Fold this protein.
Amino acid sequence: MTTSPASENPPTSETGAPADEQSVESRNENRSQRPQSEAFRSFITSGWGPRAATGTARSAAADYAAVRRARLSARFPGVRLVVPAGGLRTRSNDTDYRFRAHSAFAHLTGTGTELEPDSVLVLHPVTETDGADGTTEGHEAVLYVRPLAGRDTEEFYADSRYGEFWVGARPSLDDVAELTGIRAEHVDGLRDALAKDVGTGGVQVLVVTDADEAVEDLVDEVRASESVVEEAAAKTEQHTDDALVEAVSELRLVKDEYEVQQMRDAVDATIDGFEQVVRELSAAAAHPRGERVVETTFDAHARLAGNAVGYETIAASGEHATTLHWITNDGVVREGDLLLLDAGVEVESLYTADVTRTLPVDGTFTEVQRRVYQAVLDAADAAFAVAVPGARFRDVHAAAMDVIAARLEEWGLLPDGVSAAESLAPEGQYHRRWMVHGTSHHLGIDVHDCAQARRELYLDGVLEPGMVFTIEPGLYFKADDLTVPEEYRGIGVRIEDDVLVTADGNENLSAALPRRPDDVEAWMAGLRRPAHLTK
C-alpha cells in the first residue's frame, strides 16, 4: 500500500516540540513526506477539469425504505430518532476495514454500498395538519453526510482516509438526496440539529447504540441532563435507546417485496458459488491447505457476484466439520472425507444468503456418511413441514429435534435406558450432545437478522408470510467422542436452506442446490473437473 504524505520538515509534535518530545499518537506521521510548500498546495489544487456527471438515479429501495421509516415513526411520536451508518473500523494501526454500513441505517435509507462512513439518518419529529380539525405527529427524515470536498481543500489531496485523491469521490448532497429521496445536509450541522428544542419538557433524543461511538457521545452531549432522560423514560418504557434498537430490529422480521427479491438474488449467487467450489474440489484435494482453496474459490465468487461474503466462510473438511464455526480453513481436503461448506453471498444491497451443504469429497457417500446425512435431511424436511403461517418459530426446531432424537435412539447412541421421548423432555436433552445449536435464525440484511427483537416476537413469535429464516439441523460426532462407535467419529453433517414463509406454506429459496444424497452425487459428477486438468 502507499503511505500518506507528510511534511519534509524534521518531525515535531503538533505544538512544535522536538522529535524526542513528540506524542506517540502523532508518530504515524513520521513516515510521511507530503510537501508543505505553498507552490505545491497551489499547483495540486488547481488545473482540474469539471467532474464527470454521476448519473445518480433514485434507488429501487427508496420507496420501500420510506414505508419502513413511517412504521418506525409511528412507534415514537414526538421523539427525535438518530440512526448512524457508523464510521470506518480499524483493522490494524491506520489501516481500515472496507466500510459496511450499520444494518439499521441501510434498512431505513434503502442504501447498501452507495453511502460513505459517518453518515447519520435523523428522524425529526413534526406535527402535521391532517386537513380536518386535528393534527398528527410524524417525522421528517434528514440525512447528514460528509459530502465531496472541493479540490481546493487539503482534504482533497492530503486526507488518506476520506480524500478524493486517496479513496475516490464521495457522493454530493444532491447525489444522496436523489438516491434516497431524503433531504441531505452537511454532517457539520448535525450537533445543532440534534440539540434543537431539547431540554426539560422538550424533544427527547434516542440513538441506535453500538453503531457509532462518536454519534452516541454527541447525543449524550445534547441531551438536556440525565434527570431529563430518566424522567422521560419513567413516563413511558418506549422512550429509551434500547427500545429504539429493539424497534429497528423488529422492523425486519417480515420482509417487503424488495427485500424478498434481494434474498432471492443473494441465494442464487450463493448457489453459483457452491458450483464453483465443486468444480475446484480436485484442486483442493491436491493442495496441502485444501480448505483454503475452497474458501478462496467461494469468496472470490462472492466478491465478483455481489459485495462480499455475508460472514466468514466455513470450509470444514473431515473432522473439522464437527466444529460448528470452523473458519481457520487451513486443513487438507481428503478423498473419502466429507466437506462441510457453510457460506453466503452478500449482494450490493447488503442482504445475505446463508447456505450449508455437506459434500463427499470424492463424489460418493460412504454407507455411514449417507446414514448420518439422511438423518439430518429427514430432520430438515420435518422442519420445513411445520414452517408455515400460524406456527411458532420454536416449532421448527422442535420438529427437527424429534427426528434427531429418534435416529439417535435407533442407532443406540442415547445413554442406556434413555428413549427418544425421554431425551426430548426438558430435563433430558441428551441428543443435544450431537447438535448443540438451534435449527433456525432469521436472515436478511444481517446473517443473524432481527437479533435484538423481543423473545415473544422471535423464538415465541408466530410465523407470518414474508419471514425469511434458515433451517439447518446437523449432527456432529467428534473424533474423540468415546460415547459413539468408531465408525461415526469424525463425521460432521449440516444441511442449511433459506426458507421464505408464504401465504399458503413456504418456499425453499435454495432448493436449486441439491439436498438428497443421490442428487448430490449426480450433481457433483456433472460438475467436477478431472484431476489431471487441475495440475
